[in-house]
Amino acid sequence: MATQVGDVVLDVQDLHTYCFTRLGVVKAVDGVSFHLRQGETLGVVGESGCGKSMTALSLLRLVPRPAARIVQGKILLQGENLLEKTEQEMREIRGRRISMILQDPQTSLNPVFTVGNQLIEAIQHHHKGGAKALVQRAITALKQVRVAAPERRVDDFPHQMSGGMKQRVVGAIALSCEPRVIIADEPTTSLDVTIQAQYLRLLREIQQETGLSIIFITHDFGIVAKMCDRVMVMYAGKSVETGSVRDIFNHPSHPYTQALLDSVPKLEERTARLFSIDGQPPLLWKLPEGCRFAPRCPYTEARCETEYPPSFPVSEGHSADCWRLERA
Ligand SMILES: Nc1ncnc2c1ncn2[C@@H]1O[C@H](COP(=O)(O)OP(=O)(O)O)[C@@H](O)[C@H]1O
Ligand SMILES: [Mg+2]
């Protein structure tokens, strides 16, 4: 599934997003760095609560207030640091240059407005034009996500559409302003497997047509294999391993990645349990001092419990935070 990849469009450096709660400071994102090239799909994987969504929301500067705050780092979108933008400037950037497909298509459409109205609502933030031109753009947006008879469906209300169709409308809204980067945060969990596969194929097709870059957040390694070019594995607010899909599947180098891959059920029995690694991720406000995975890791040695490992290169473009790699 090779796509043509180009220049770096998004470069995230040492991002820290903390939640300030009564129990203490939750280090939801704790020094995460990664980049994304034009036309590339980066998969972000990890158990629930490891900071995937908080990373995504940070990129859009939409972290939940007042608890969460981006406290450090750089988010360079085509060379411009989004953390230095005003709120007004961010409103221009969101949707138009970086956009997000929300987690649950059932709840992200408003039941009292037609899908056409909801598309137009999104489109008119960035395109001026008369009512007729906007309706035409809405129809084009539906066509792009392969909604049949878009001239008719544009007047439908969400409840008149199937789950898969609604998912595509949500995608159309996110794509309507032709963003360079789109973040899809577990967009498929509430859909059945066939519809899910169709939707993912559609996203890849649109990517091939437009050179869009995709950040694909999921807890499902099976989907990563089908969808992504590169992978970032997150654990307890850190990026613990990154590499090409092939490197990650053939040479998983962090014990957490190895455990995740071991727990992936065979593709035929996909609905079976995911992530049956013994133990629990640490509480993000009571992090162990050294490696966060040490309490669950089969290879833990003394140093792992006192010192967080640096990122060691495994091969070109492949690295992992694990002391075992120092010797390799
Ligand atoms: N509004 C909030 N207030 C306090 N903590 C939060 C809030 N939202 C998320 N968190 C914490 O941030 C961590 C990362 O959450 P999240 O990014 O949603 O994880 P994921 O998407 O990987 O499941 C979680 O452990 C959660 O406890
Ligand atoms: Mg999430």
Overview of the structural elements:
It is a single chain. This protein is of the alpha/beta class. It folds into 2 domains: 8-97 and 180-281, Rossmann fold, CATH 3.40.50.300; 110-178, no CATH class. It has helices spanning 52-59, 87-93, 105-108, 115-123, 131-144, 150-153, 163-175, 193-210, 221-227, 245-250, 255-263, 324-327, and strands at residues 8-21, 24-37, 41-45, 68-77, 80-81, 98-101, 181-185, 213-218, 230-235, 238-244, 312-315, 318-320. The strands form 2 sheets. The protein has an 8-stranded mixed beta sheet, with helices on both faces. A 4-stranded antiparallel beta sheet has the order 2-1-4-5, covered by helices on one side. Helix 4 crosses helix 5 (131-144), helix 4 (115-123) runs parallel beside helix 7 (163-175) and helix 7 (163-175) runs parallel beside helix 8. The chain is globular.
- The number of helical elements comes to 12
* Radius of gyration based on Cα positions: 20 Å
Structural class: alpha/beta
CATH architecture identity of the largest domain: 3-Layer(aba) Sandwich
Number of strands: 12
Average pLDDT value?
A: 89
* Main sheet attributes: strand count, strand direction, barrel closure: 8 strands, mixed
Amino- and carboxy-terminal Cα gap: 31 Å
Can you tell me the CATH superfamily of the largest domain? P-loop containing nucleotide triphosphate hydrolases
Total of domains: 2
Could you name the CATH topology of the largest domain?
Rossmann fold
Name the helix and strand elements from N-terminus to C-terminus, one letter apiece: EEEHEEHEHHHHHEHEHEEHHEEH
What is the topology, as strand order, of the major beta sheet? 6-7-8-3-9-10-12-11
Strand content: 15-25%
Give the quaternary arrangement of the chains: single chain
